[in-house]
Structure prediction request, 273 residues.
Amino acid sequence: MTRKELINQIFTKKSFLCVGLDTDLKKIPQHLLQEDDPLFAFNKAIIDATAHYCVAYKPNLAFYEAFGVKGMISFEHTIKYLKKYYPCHFIIADAKRGDIGNTSMMYARTFFEEYNVDSLTVAPYMGEDSIKPFLEYDGKWVVLLALTSNNGSHDFQLMEDAQGERLFEKVLRTSQQWGNTENMMYVVGATQGKMFECIRRVAPDHFLLVPGVGAQGGSLQEVCRYGMNKDCGLLVNSSRGIIYASQTEDFAEAAAIAAQKLQQEMEVELAKL
Prediction:
């Protein structure tokens, strides 16, 4: 998916919502455990219920890899279902890959050729040669970790060099020499609040994938105030707050209500542009 296509979807649907498919067998409604593929059965119901309100889906690979081959089959079924029935939705494989060049080349082939997702989260720690293989695919995106929402993010990401530049700022500045606004986004946690101002000083035009709204306590309004640009420039992810809005048989309807609520808040923010 191109940047232009993504922006068009955002303004057409009046939404920049990404639904995170962090599907945990211990949390899905018990009646689904009778299905041949419980993970996919849950995902399918969530997707059908929320597709009208979002522009993207983000399956987290950890929740599928934990079940070995069966889990990866569930992931593959989910991707194929999205491609067939919701081809205009942006798909982010949240796998946080990144390794030496030839290994990254295999990761890129896995996700961009075999699974044909639109984007992949990648860790920047190993530098340019670990990122470049992912940028060689037209219409595909690298979503590079920059300033994350977890408590431990400050352990390294806010460290300053002798010139006072923090590590996340160095990641943003240096990586723009590898990719551009058409093929690279950055992960910035919603819990970082006013730090979005710092992000936008270094990367004013790039899209940001923003986890942490909802269950992690991030504020959508604060993210928009400091992080939105003229193209919106945001994909705000909510996982638990939507997919586990109910753990009973009405889980899909509850997910739709939660997704709609966020979409309506996003529509208000987009109207300010």
The two ends are 23 Å apart (CA to CA).
